[in-house]
Amino acid sequence: MSLISCPECAKEVSDTAYKCQNCGVQLRKAKRGFFGKLFKWAFIVFNVVMAWWLIAGMSAATKGLEGMSSAHQAGAAVGAGVGAILIIGLWVVGDIILGLFVLFTRPKAG
Ligand SMILES: [Zn+2]
Fold first, then answer.
1. Rounded to the nearest 5 degrees, what angle is found at the Cα of 51, between the Cα atoms of 43 and 54?
2. 1, 7, 51, 84: which has the fewest C-beta neighbours closer than 10 Å?
3. Predicted confidence (pLDDT) per residue in 18-57, tens digit
4. How many other CB atoms are found less than 10 A from the CB of residue 61?
5. What is the 30 CA–ligand 1 centroid distance (Å)?
6. Please, which residues have CB within 8 angstroms of residue 2's CB and are 6 or more apart in sequence?
């Protein structure tokens, strides 16, 4: 531990401090802990996977519609619609849950 001078008030503060004890300016960003990082990355990966799943699911569901009768086309469209709603529903619920974990594990200042 050593002392640095605050960029705002020029008082000497510890280089391990997140905030200046004198003027309260933020000196450096608080680091996320292990779980904070884990949930942040889980959140990012989850969004990528869900986006990929939605796109892959939609292209698979609409593939080969040309060869079908109109009744089959309608059925496939309904199936794709229900599938999309399910995926988006899961996506939203997962985002809320993971978002809460990200929020709870966010770094605390000071
Ligand atoms: Zn200061």
1. 135
2. 1
3. 889 899 998 887 777 888 888 889 999 999 999 998 888 7
4. 18
5. 17
6. 14, 15
Tracing tokens 């996320």 back to the chain, one arrives at 32
CA of 107 to the centre of ligand 1 (A): 21
pLDDT in tens, 51-87: 998 888 778 777 766 677 888 888 878 888 888 898 8
Q: Model pTM?
A: 0.60
Which pLDDT does position 80 carry in this prediction? 80
Q: Tell me the two tokens of residue 59.
A: 């292209």
Conformation bin of residue 17: beta by default, left when phi > 0, alpha when psi is -120 to 50? beta
Of 85, 84, 89, the closest CA to residue 59 belongs to 84
